[in-house]
Amino acid sequence: MTRLGESREEAQELTTPIVNPKSILNLGNWNVRTMYATGKAAQVAKEMSRYSMDILGVRIDIKTEFYETLDETVRKSHRHDILIVTGDFNAKVGTDPNHYDSVMGKHGEGERNENSERLFEFCAMNDLIITGTLFPHKKIHKLTWVSPDGKTKNQIDHTLINKKFKTSVRDTRVQRGADVSSDHYLVKTSL
Q1: Which domains does the chain have, with CATH numbers?
Q2: What positions does the domain Endonuclease/exonuclease/phosphatase occupy (predicted)?
Q3: Strand extents, DSSP E, the chain
Q4: Are 57 and 88 in contact (CB under 8 A)?
């Protein structure tokens, strides 16, 4: 979002640091399906406050050209900055980090799909790691999406961070109590 009269480039210029080494930053991602429903933005803001979120990525866009745009954006970032990419990748990372132990931990869920290969390649090319696979949580705190019939559950929403800042990640887990009538759960990462 930009302020009135502000260009997209001006809005992206960082004026003050968002985080410092002595503070905890809580960020998250949530596929809320739509923001056009009456009161949805207020619901999201309320849940954001309730879970002490400093930054929340909300997914409502189509996947068209997603990785191309993401690659372009990541290439523009400074190599000394903390790079955080968060969202619904529709990528099931699986339980076995075999061949991809450089981009994920040992605590993923589900069986890999076509989207996971794209995510792994993107992470490998950009020296990123999938934070939701680093922590040994119960499945209910890792599975981010549930099907309408309630039978199928997957870990498809992820937070990625530069590998060199991996030790700054305190936790990544699902917040199941947050509710805005979505089939996705809020994913919270603390740095």
Answers
A1: 24-190 (3.60.10.10)
A2: 66-187
A3: 26-31, 55-59, 84-88, 128-130, 145-146, 153-154, 157-162, 171-175, 186-190
A4: no
